[in-house]
Each structure stands twice: as structure tokens, then as C-alpha cells.
């Protein structure tokens, strides 16, 4: 595994965050979706350290019953950041009902799973636009998830600035510990909250294996895991790239 100085990297990340927001004004706000998981918890904590609690707006967006609601509330209370619960249930159900009447496409399981994060991202942009000062939506994806495309395009993969994109899950956990976040938020079993499966069950391998492979391509991990990671990485590279555009000659 690559060496990781958690104190150095955390302090540099906080400074980067402060400088990025302040170049747009010293009252600029950050809007972040709070799921109760490690990534949104660590990102929100970084934002508080960089900007102060009053410049961070945490939005909790349940779609029906939210299994992580208590954890999401725990985080915003622990950090003391302004927050609001904005359910997406009504317009999620309305969208599904509308789609089911369509004739040219099918309402698949994956459509239903990916619709929720896309509606959540549109909600975050609505919240940002509704602030009295310039506000930006913060992405919470990490390097491990990005490497295998474990995100929804124009959903949780979107945002105005990404803070954890260069950190693996293993490193994100260390940052969370360094910042003193509650253990139940940092070390809970990661889940997308959509499919009913843990992240690792859905991916088919452990994050520790993925992180080891990202850090060292010659890492000693099973051939089938290596092949699965490679396949997902190639298939999902488009999520990390700018939209291709034709250039006239």
C-alpha cells in the first residue's frame, strides 16, 4: 500500500478547500448531501474545518424510509452545521409513475436505483441556488469508488468540487479517525442505501483488495478479483472524463 501521512494530507485538504471556496468570496457556502455514510461524513467534517459550521449546509434526502437517517442526524448534530431534511419521495414516485406510462423504454431495476441519486443531486443544486450567497455543491466520491465506476453519472458523481477524489476508502477512514468523527459513522458497513446490498457484496470484492490494487498493480490479490476490477474500471472510465465533443476542422 502507498504511504499515507494522514495529518499532512488532512491539513492540506482543509487548506485546499478553504482556498477554493474563498476565491469566490469569504462568505461562499458549501452544500452537501448527508447520507450518514463515511464519505459524506468525512467531507462535511473537512468543510466545517475549512469554512466554519455556518458556511456548510447539510441536506438529508430520504426516499421513503431511510435506514441511515439516525446516522445522518448524528453527523449534522455532531458537527453543528445548518441542515434540513428534504424528502425526495413524492417526485421520485411521480417520475416512476410517469415513466411507467412510456412506450419506448422500460422501467428497469437499474433505472429505479440510479434515479434516486440523480434526483438528490438536482435537489442539492436547487438548495445551492436558493441560498442568499454564492453556494457550491460538493461531491463526496472517493478514489476507490471512482476507479470502478461505483457512482451514478450526473447523480452522486456530479458536483462543483471534489474533495475525496484522490483518496482511497482506506485513506478516507484514516481521515475520519483523525478528525475525531464518531466510530459508527466512519466504520459502518458501506452501502448505497438503494439496492439493499452492501457495497462490497454488490461489487463482488473487498475495498481493501481494491485499494491494494490501486496502490500497487502487482499486489497479491486473486486473479478473478483483479479481472473484475479491470473490467469495471475500463467500462466506467467515461464517468471520469469530460463529455466528448466534436471539434470542427
TrEMBL record:
Keywords (A to Z) from UniProt: ATP-binding, Ligase, NAD, Nucleotide-binding
Entry GO CC: cytoplasm
Single GO MF descriptor: ATP binding
CDD domains in UniProt: NAD_synthase (cd00553)
Its EC number(s): 6.3.1.5
Gene3D superfamilies: HUPs (3.40.50.620)
Catalytic activity, reaction form: deamido-NAD(+) + NH4(+) + ATP = AMP + diphosphate + NAD(+) + H(+)
One Pfam family it belongs to: NAD_synthase
Parts forming coiled coils: none
SUPFAM superfamilies assigned to the protein according to its UniProt record, in alphabetical order: Adenine nucleotide alpha hydrolases-like
Family: Belongs to the NAD synthetase family.
Family annotation (NCBIfam families): nadE
The protein's name in its UniProt record: NH(3)-dependent NAD(+) synthetase
Source organism: Pseudobutyrivibrio xylanivorans
Taxonomic placement: Bacteria, Bacillati, Bacillota, Clostridia, Lachnospirales
